[in-house]
């Protein structure tokens, strides 16, 4: 890649982070009953992690390189 | 209020609106002012990924497996992070090679293989047909449900309905017609449909808004927010179980395989490829899509679980199909408008998918399946037809109809066995078979055509065996013993527990075996053989697309002879003669040529022709057609490699060269300037010599002529003899003067003059000169005034030379002053530390143009009535040189009616050199 | 029949010498001191021969020669060009423009007179 390698690397990192967050070991941690503000834990976790990933993607992409 | 005709009318109005948007988009595109050249539109158009599966099916899935509906949206989110590398590469390759579909991509990569293109097309069609049937099912069901408002009635099973009453059939036909209108109005060489993209982006917004509306309604309208729904669900054991998912290996296995398969589908579904790659306007749009598209997925999924739970709470007895909650919940609460909005949202989701998918598939069918076959059938003698564009469009239109009818057939045959999501996953698993060939193709140069064919076939067969056939069996179109006991009763061949692998859900199971077969055969067969020339060259072009320049390379890998006269009509047959002419004319212009006739039939032209044609009939067929029109000399693999290697070496060298040449340019520019100056001087020298020669010969002519006359004529009258002799003498004098002046000029200019510099009193100089010219003034009776103040400081100059200057100025003044009325005035003054002498006469003034001329050598200006003024024309130039030599300036001022004023300045002699009267310097 | 000669030169002394030479031969002589005057004089007196200097003010000799040759009414007028510039290119140019003969200055009077007579068909 001739363009911003750093962005590319960061995106790859986000990908790996996502793989970890959304797979067996970590996922099972939250796979219990329980609720936060009345919303089931798993639900909160999944959507929370998802929005975190989206936020990171946006941050990495939209940051203008100096 | 919600009668049948209302629903139908609103639906058609909506479709009409879509069409209007598409039409507008196309018009703007044709005018060059694209409305889709916008990263947000690009990102929104990608949301065609969300079909009725998302709209209706997600809720259905959530109702049975809780959070398990989500992986197919998480997958794309993860994949999109990698798009920076992968998608960019695919887009770059596709633009460089003018790829028009996913089949085209695969075929091109493996040497423009028509077989591969056809195979991919078949797999795509077979794989997508279930997905299309899903959309038809959704629309027809939702229509039926809405029709029965206010009662909630589930639609009867599809098979039970007679054909003529099956709304799904009509829906299929209407959609086919609509798609034809959308995408096959004319052939475009790039296969882009800007209007369609605009409409799809619009639809994405409509879908999202509708879903959010119903979601908000259910969550906050029917219940009291998220907390309320979940609290109530906790109370019901079945529902409570949905909060988590099965904590077993297969549970996670399913989660994982769904994620993987959706990661692949976001790229490999024909409609996704079409929108993301073929319709992409600008690589830069990828950036925003990377986060905007996942955000869209996020938003459209927030309310899924609440709606599912809400529906289960509301319809506890299971009579209402969970797939329909999105529609039935508003209906049950008597929200007519909302229900209609939801229906339109679902319609939106379905039409988006069907249109894009059908267009993508029809393109592939036409280019990669039908055309190659037709072109081979000599019977049809297609080569001799002049305009095939009509034929191409017809094929595509029929293909669209066929695809939709196939979708309908599947719907009748197998649509009831699965919930919507189940059907969709079957299609996902099908397109996943493209992954090894494509991803291998862009990263591994070793992938060969045979490997790709083997892999695809193997994967496809396994997929069909493990997913497609079982779906028929589950709908009783195939005996169910097939499922239970395996093929021919062999237990190990049970389609859904192949070789005894049990415990996986059917998707994971199928994915595992099909990928194993696919990748195994792809790698195995590729490694066993060697890539052919075509494959190797295309492999390098694809894999190294970032390192290479792109399309221009391909043309070098071709050798042969072609005639422009053959190529233009060939293209014309497919694109239409007018468009072909226009395209080639444009190409000629871009090469800087005046017309098509000036085009040479070289490799680049052939490549261009191929590209043009590829847009209409696909890369593989295009190559075949063009090859038939030109005589190609096959290149050996080594030659190809050499050429490519050479190219990369050349590129490295050329960078160095660029640097050097920049430096060279700077030096050359200097040299050129110097050369120009030299040439100019040379020319001036030539001019000077020829002018001098002329000036010298003129007096000589008179001298010789009169001398000869005097010799010949013994009896000349005395007065005539005297006259002639005096002319001889005068001309001899003139000649001498001229020679002296020329030599003088030459010496001064070449720097060889001898200067005797001393401190001089200008007053004395002027008075001397005046005395010397007094007779001239007297003869012409010209009045001379002197204004010479005393006590002015001396100047440093050469005495004789200054006298020369003054004599020149004074004699000019006399020459040009009118006799008797002439007045000449000489004044001496100080000006800014210099000493200044003015000589003014009231003769005819000198125009601005002439003011410059008089200082040129041999140039004189004079009153033309009196003829040529006497003199050599060198006086003023010499005077100026002399003055300038001593650091002064000599110039003329003349305004109309004010006579002529010559002035010169000389710097003061520096103090301290007083007493030095004589200093000899050779300047 | 008396031949008429037109002398076109801006050097007064040269004109004097040429005039003498032509009159000695018994020709009628007229003079012009610039290009335009030359053309006017040709119009007026229809000379049999023009002694045409190249370096004339207002319109140079080459142009005058071109004009003469362009006019079918003056096709009988002989043109003898005179110049102090002796380069071969000049000679060729003059002849190409239609001059009948070309003499460089300084010339031999015998030579000049001989050329004139030849052009007039007198020897």
Descriptive report:
The complex is a heterotrimer of chains A (66), B (923) and C (123). Chain A contains three helices and two strands; from the N terminus they run ααββα. With 66 residues, chain A is mainly α. By secondary structure, chain B is mainly alpha-helical. Chain B has 35 helices and ten strands. In chain B, strands 4-6-7-9-8 form a five-stranded mixed β-sheet. A three-stranded antiparallel β-sheet of chain B has the order 5-3-10. The longest helix of chain B is centred in the last third of the chain and has 76 residues. Chain C has one domain: Response regulator (Rossmann fold), CATH 3.40.50.2300. Chain C has five helices and five strands. Chain C has a five-stranded parallel β-sheet, sandwiched between helices. Chain C is globular and about 30 Å long. Chains in contact: A-B, B-C. Chains B and C meet through helix 30 and helix 31 of B and helix 1 of C.
Give the N-to-C terminal Cα separation of chain A.
Answer: 18 Å
CATH homologous superfamily of chain C - what is it? Response regulator
Main β-sheet, spatial strand arrangement of chain C: 2-1-3-4-5
Total strands of chain C: 5
The residue ranges of chain A in which pLDDT falls below 50 over 5 or more consecutive positions are none
Record field, number of beta strands of chain A: 2
Oligomer state of the chains in this structure: heterotrimer
Radius of gyration of chain A: 15 Å
User: The biggest beta sheet of chain A, please?
Assistant: 2 strands, antiparallel
Strand content of chain A: 5-15%
Query: What share of the residues of chain C does DSSP label as strand, in percent?
Result: 15-25%
How do the SSEs of chain C run, as a string of H and E? EHEHEHEHEH
Helix content of chain A: 55-70%
CATH topology of chain C: Rossmann fold
Count the helices of chain A. How many?
3
Q: What is the total domain count of chain A? A: 1
Radius of gyration of chain C from the CA trace? 13 Å
Order of helices and strands of chain A: HHEEH
Number of helices of chain C: 5
Strands in their spatial order, largest beta sheet of chain A: 1-2
